[in-house]
Amino acid sequence: MSKKIFHDLSEKEQNAIRRKYKNECSTYYKYSIHLYIIYVILGIISILSMVGMAYINFIISLIILIVTVILMIITIHLLKKSNINFFNFLKENNMIYDSKNIKK
Predict the structure, then answer these.
(1) Separation CA 35–CA 94 (nearest Å)
(2) Which run of H or E residues covers position 96?
């Protein structure tokens, strides 16, 4: 039996699978959502620090920018790792995330 490709499904089917994942794996789902929220907040802080470099204090704003970029890189790494749980969920349901994942 061939595996379904998640991205080839309609938006309605994808959302149904996401809701099922949210219900069955709520801990992993909440972890990913919290990481994404942190990522967005860090992005906003980094943009504000760039504005601060021009108008307030260059050195302090530069330090804040560097710290937020480092934290964003770490957050992106953790987000990628948290996606593995969703990929495993798809695998359990005889699906793959993208057609690039098909072994030839």
Answers:
(1) 27
(2) strand 95-96
